[in-house]
Amino acid sequence: MTKYVLTGCRTSAWRNARGKGIEVYEILANNHWQYLHTVMPEFDNPSWLTFDHKRQQLYVIYGDGENVTQYRFNRKDGKLTCLQSVSTGPRHPNKELQLERKNNSVCAELSPDQQSLLIANHEAGNIAKLDFDSNDKLQIPQYFIKILGKSSPDYHDKSLSRPHQMVFDCTQNYMFVPNQGRKAGNGIDMIQVYRIDGQEYSLVCSVEMIEGCWPRHICVHPSNRFIYCVNELGCTVTVFAFNQQTGHLTQLQELRTLPDEITQKYDVSEINLHHNGKYLYVSNRVHNSISLFYVLANGQLKFEQYFDCQGKTPRFTTLSPDNLYFYSANEDSDNIVEFRINEDNGYLEPTGIILQNASPTCILFI
């Protein structure tokens, strides 16, 4: 069966972006990406892509946007057919928020029961749940998980915290949500855990983080005993023990993503865990590097090395489905760089393949 990879990007002038749309590539036998075509987006910034479990439907959300587009994907030629676009929900009423960002949807994932699409509306302070009708078409969201901020006379019910991602545990009985406080909206930097019961999501744990650290993305250890959260402005990664019975988190460790002797100001973006559970990678923007940590038997981390991302601003990183290759989508240098993963030590070895791709923000393998 033909293998494909799709890339998302930013396109808007407000983001100083250079991307054109969703790019589709065929993966050839030598692992070379053969460019096929570009799909012009329905809205600016098609920055996050996700597929249904059958790999027949593609869902696209838009940075600084308030819509999701549903496409049919043709496995024979890689072509996309637009089916519809629907709203991700109303904007938040807080007047301190930037109007240009709208809902700023940042992550979309299929629910464990495959009956709905969950979307993190970063600027609206909620996770929208869009159900599918009998024809598998998305409906306008009717259910929202609201992420509140600190209560105060000035903000009251208009306070909000900003969800940046949804990640499920290995049993798919729980959902982890890293939330960023940020100043506008009187938010809280925290990680929330929701228990999933069919279509219901019940909050069972909330762990407040250091104010201003901005928890961004999470990955789950294959043992399901530990989770790892990368903190955008804290420039740290936090390790938690996960209780699968209660859903509670216990912090075990927090450490910088780069050695202390590096005093340059930077921020972090992405976190990936090799399927062997031994190698963890974190991307450092501004410093333009990828950090490698070794995962110890107790789940804690040991910093090992960092590698040049061979570009500027590694916003998104991912591993190939077989975990043999690592890819860095460097947003501000307009390229995607391929590395071979050394199976013995997890080191990233450049293959020499550098793909020109404008303002890349997402890589999705089919």
Summarize the structure.
With 366 residues, the protein is mainly β. It is built from no helices and 29 strands. 0% of the residues lie in helices and 51% in strands.
Describe the model.
The chain has 366 residues and is mainly beta. The chain has a domain at 257-366: 7 Propeller (Methylamine Dehydrogenase, Chain H), CATH 2.130.10. The chain has no helices and 29 strands. The protein has strands spanning 3-9, 22-27, 33-39, 46-51, 57-62, 67-73, 80-87, 105-110, 116-121, 126-131, 143-146, 162-163, 167-168, 174-180, 190-197, 200-208, 215-220, 226-231, 236-242, 249-256, 267-273, 279-285, 289-295, 301-308, 314-319, 325-330, 335-341, 348-356, 360-365. The strands form 7 sheets. Strands 12, 13, 14, 15 and 16 form a 5-stranded antiparallel β-sheet that branches. Strand 22 (279-285) and strand 23 form a beta hairpin. The termini are close together. The mean pLDDT is 96. InterPro entries: Cycloisomerase_2, Lactonase_7-beta_prop, WD40/YVTN_repeat-like_dom_sf. Keywords: Carbohydrate metabolism, Glucose metabolism, Isomerase.
The arrangement of helices and strands along the chain is EEEEEEEEEEEEEEEEEEEEEEEEEEEEE
Question: What's the number of extended β-strand segments?
Answer: 29
Low-pLDDT stretches: none
Q: What would CATH call the class of the domain at 257-366? A: Mainly Beta
Mean pLDDT: 96
Structural class: mainly beta
The proportion of strand residues reads over 45%
Count of DSSP H/I helices: 0
| Largest pleated sheet | 5 strands, antiparallel
Helix percent reads: under 10%
Any idea what the radius of gyration is? Answer: 19 Å
Task: Supply the CATH architecture of the domain at 257-366.
Answer: 7 Propeller
Report the CATH topology name of the domain at 257-366.
Answer: Methylamine Dehydrogenase, Chain H
